Predict the structure.
Amino acid sequence: MGMPISVTLTSSGIGRAVDLDWMSSKFTSFTVVFSSSGTAAWTAEGSLDDLQQVSSGNVAWFTLSSGSANSSLNIVSGTIAGIRLNVAAISSASITLRVLQGIGQ
């Protein structure tokens, strides 16, 4: 999987889930950025469920970070199996979740 991965939304809703390598990762870094001066209410959500093994309706998601402005760099120390962007409200902007995963010894 190429890194970094970006998921962009221009309307409220849930972006595609990004399947992460939970077996060999050391950390996952992510940030949420706006494309303009618009407003949005967002939540970055993580999961410990293997997205390739658990049907999408049964994946348990939890909040990693949330806000209404650009986020700073967030680092999850340890493994997570998936990440997604949930946008509750957005006006005059696009919003992007960028994910980078560290893998190795």
Remarks:
- The chain has one domain: 5-103.
- Residues 29 and 75 are 4 Å apart (CA to CA).
- The mean pLDDT is 88.
